């Protein structure tokens, strides 16, 4: 080797690179100004020879092999910087011409990194991860990842034979962020990060910020460009603040159809020529399912859909709640562009889309976030704070700014890039309480000795404040199962700032009431009426969700008492009727609208063939009509969160198990009288009414077309001046068995 060249080289640093233990390879590799010109060095394992081709020159310069493992160098006697490529001949005699990855500047500014370190870089996903771009006229992909305790990080993929010695990334200052631009790569290329821990152990990790991921069971990230989709949902987005207003006296109709995309409908399994199953062939693509789902949702008169998590997850049986790819729509159903098409299609049909989102915990899969760089990067280091012993998952360290930044930016990402209309946060209770699901000795109290997770509370407030500032018409919904106060309270008033909270208390009490034999329901009459004591303490959504139709709990129809299916469906109709007329927005899980009898199974389609049977067809017809009633009458939704929108007429008929109440708006003429009978007995009875006038039955769940007996009040009823239920005016009506009946008032 030339002595001048030999003397210029830092042999200790070269050894560090050769052993792939360098966190700042750019200080050695690439072109560096020296006294007599520029020292150009490269490390390409499996290279037999490397030539330097300077732009504008026809003849390449042979580089000297400084180390047989693949380290090459040469001295270029120029006074000014120059653009160059390497001509590499590999040990299999293949030849490749490449630009030097270490000749490109960072895309990060000091401000980017400082804001990320402080937890306030809300668009960090624009730079972190894998970004196709053109730098200095060269096309390629810029990679970056946060791994603060790593010894070394490399990008690996098919493009470098998954060899972690190649493409070692450069650490940016003391921010823990590693970065490298690799020329020639493009959207569609597979990659992972190979991280060598401080113990010298290499690990393969998927990109936490990847926009696209491989179909399970494979776990690589995929380079994706999500900037090219042409949206056409501007009408929906412009008017979304009306469709989803959270103003107390302008509350819109919101009737949500909760579903799991992979089992709403499925295809037949396809088999390859070798007889093996074609992985993923049972799933409909986002583009295929969009028109089918939209047609059904509109036909059934729902306003929104809520998708169980579509973020990438390795295990079908987790239903998406154990996420490994927070920025990746799952590849089970297609590409990021396909999911954008899905969202755009729903909006053009005036259907809102809410996504389930899981900031509470994450799985321990080896390619995921757990022990990301050999240290506790995303999870709390103390297992009493950092793990769920019963779920087997890890808990985020919300006190770490970069972790909260990852999650906050992710929520904003779905609203910004995919136009989502709401985020439903899963398992919020597990975030709020340090002892959630833990026995004595399995948790640590906070600094005040309490069980409140102060870091998680601050995280939720931070997230909700920023989210509503940037996307005020997109909704924030909490699945929170305790009596924690002010979940939907204003942040300025000590609340958490959610728009809505799932009413788990109502769900549990009401289902326990409905499961009782009608003969015994009078003994639990309080379970029917109790929810109205706290109905206005939060902005509630009444939910009958997926959690209620799995794990041996039976479907909603299956929970109902009755010796025959007809009796069960009678119970189910009055249950749905009471739910739809009770204050609060509504959510029902797929399949329950037509009375599916088998529990939900994520591995099979809903039992659509049940609609060949009259009972199920009539139940679906009932659900459709009930949803239409809800949409047509503002009294059923406009004052959901104002006590003026509800008034008891009778909540003391315990023996008959009947309730009578009003739903109202600011206009008297909108008033509805609702009567619910939870026994299989027909009653002739008098009920008090608010005004003198005529009352017309506009809905009856016991109608024959719904599978009922046909008992009802076919003619309009005139009130009489007779005091009943503490009212000056009253009606005499027929109350059908096991039914919900609605009357509309007219002067």
Present the secondary structure layout.
Layout: H1 3-8, H2 11-18, E1 30-34, E2 37-43, E3 47-54, E4 61-62, E5 64-67, E6 71-76, E7 84-90, E8 95-99, H3 110-118, E9 129-135, E10 138-146, E11 152-156, E12 170-172, E13 177-183, E14 190-196, E15 202-205, E16 221-222, H4 234-243, E17 255-259, H5 261-264, H6 286-299, E18 304-307, E19 311-312, E20 325-329, H7 336-348, E21 352-357, H8 383-386, E22 387-388, E23 393-394, H9 401-418, E24 422-425, H10 428-432, H11 454-470, E25 475-478, E26 500-502, H12 504-515, H13 525-529, E27 540-544, H14 556-559, H15 565-581, E28 585-589, H16 614-632, E29 646-653, E30 658-663, E31 672-677, E32 683-689, E33 694-700, E34 717-718, E35 729-735, E36 739-746
Parallel strand pairs: 17-18, 17-28, 18-21, 21-24, 24-25, 25-26, 26-27, 27-28
Antiparallel strand pairs: 1-2, 2-6, 3-4, 3-7, 5-6, 7-8, 9-10, 10-13, 11-14, 12-13, 14-15, 14-16, 19-20, 22-23, 29-30, 30-31, 31-36, 32-35, 33-34, 33-36
